[in-house]
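Q: what sequence does this backbone want?
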């Protein structure tokens, strides 16, 4: 099963090597590993995507929590969360096919960030599946170069319900469901 694990870590040298070494020592292949700064200059957020069974991931989560520079570890499995990946895709596209490629990019809500005589560079943000679908459609035109950031994730928050009936019934918050359709108030993914 695919797991997205978020770890809040101290922003100091060697933390990434310790975490990667812990995964390697247990024979895990990391599908994605992203580290970036947070709102605090002393902390970084590390997002690791790994494919393993639930028992093994629980052991990994506990081992991560034991590493000194790690503040908090969270596995998003079974919770509502948002994940995004960013890709830059350089597509070879002759002038006669450019309109087709631009239409595909617009359908996926991608952005063209560079144009040259024989190619376009596309910026695409979304789920891994959305980016994979765009790559599949652009492949016949010729992908010259591809760079991806890897997955980042964040737990979804509770939303206040403004409905008077809900307040009268004593329900002032609603819980989000993993299977619920996207609400109109949320930006497109």
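A:
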């Amino acid at each position: 099963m695919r797991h997205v694990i978020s770890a809040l870590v101290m922003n100091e040298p060697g933390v990434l090597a310790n975490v990667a070494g812990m995964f390697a020592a247990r024979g895990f292949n990391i599908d994605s590993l992203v580290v970036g700064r947070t709102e605090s200059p002393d902390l970084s957020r590390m997002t690791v995507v790994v494919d393993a069974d639930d028992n093994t991931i629980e052991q990994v989560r506990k081992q991560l929590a034991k590493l000194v520079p790690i503040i908090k570890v969270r596995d998003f499995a079974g919770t509502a969360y948002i994940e995004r990946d960013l890709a830059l895709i350089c597509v070879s596209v002759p002038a006669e096919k450019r309109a087709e490629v631009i239409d595909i990019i617009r359908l996926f809500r991608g952005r063209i960030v560079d144009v040259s005589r024989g190619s376009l560079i596309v910026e695409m943000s979304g789920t891994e599946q959305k980016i994979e679908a765009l790559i599949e459609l652009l492949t016949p035109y010729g992908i010259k170069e591809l760079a991806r950031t890897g997955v980042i994730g964040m737990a979804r928050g509770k939303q206040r319900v403004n409905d008077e009936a809900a307040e009268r019934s004593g329900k002032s918050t609603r819980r989000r469901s993993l299977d619920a359709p996207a609400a109109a108030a949320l930006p497109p993914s």
